[in-house]
Amino acid sequence: MQADSGEDAITGINITPLVDVVLVVLIIFMATAPMIARRALKVDLPKASKSDKVATEALPITLDGSRRLAIGGRSVSLDELRKLLAAAVAARPDQAVTLSADQALAYGEVAELLDAVRSAGVRKVGLEVRRK
Fold first, then answer.
1. pLDDT at residue 55 above 90?
2. Sequence-distant (≥ 6) Cβ neighbours of residue 56 within 8 angstroms
3. pLDDT > 60? residue 39
4. DSSP 87-102
5. Which CATH architecture has domain 42-131?
6. CA 5, CA 19: separation in Å to the nearest integer?
7. Is the distance from CB of 73 to CB of 40 less than 8 angstroms?
8. Do the beta carbons of residue 44 and residue 102 sit within 8 Å?
9. Which residues contact 76 (CB under 8 A, 6 or more apart)?
10. pLDDT, tens only, 105-126
11. Maximum distance among all alpha carbons in the chain?
12. Can you tell me the distance from the alpha carbon of 69 to that of 65, in angstroms, rounded to the nearest whole number?
């Protein structure tokens, strides 16, 4: 005969702490992924003595020294960029854009890119610079 002590052995595994840890790691990756993707293209930004932080969520557009164009870390052509920006402006008329261009590029190339962005309907354009 066995005496019933009223306590049963724990036979299951409590996965609540595991789920908590996985969710925290997921949140960390979600927060840092845009920063990692943004620096996928090496862009030597020009320096400025004054610069402001971007106050809104802006689409990052990058033109690197070898004239590769990317929006949000994804390589695109100039025509694709116009189409993507036009769709973004149609969905959200106050869509902002941050333009990062390598300082070694000719002024005309950056002006052409800026013209393409403006012709897609974007009215809020920020130029990214690096502090001195």
1. no
2. 96, 124
3. no
4. HHHHH-TT-EEEEEE-
5. 2-Layer Sandwich (3.30)
6. 32
7. yes
8. yes
9. 69, 70, 84
10. 888 888 899 999 998 888 888 8
11. 93
12. 10
For residue 129, give both structure tokens.
């610079």
Find the mean pLDDT for residues 68-82.
89
- Both tokens of residue 50? 């004054």
Q: At residue 71, what is the residue type?
A: I
Helices (H), 1-132: 16-38, 78-91, 107-119
So what's the pLDDT on residue 129? 72
Whole-number percent of the chain with pLDDT over 90: 18
Residue labelled with tokens 């840890």: 21
As a whole number, the mean pLDDT across the chain is 81
The answer on pLDDT for 2 being more than 60 is no
Q: Are 41 and 72 in contact (CB under 8 A)?
A: no
- How many CB atoms neighbour CB 61 within 10 A? 25
Domain parsing of the chain, residue ranges? 42-131
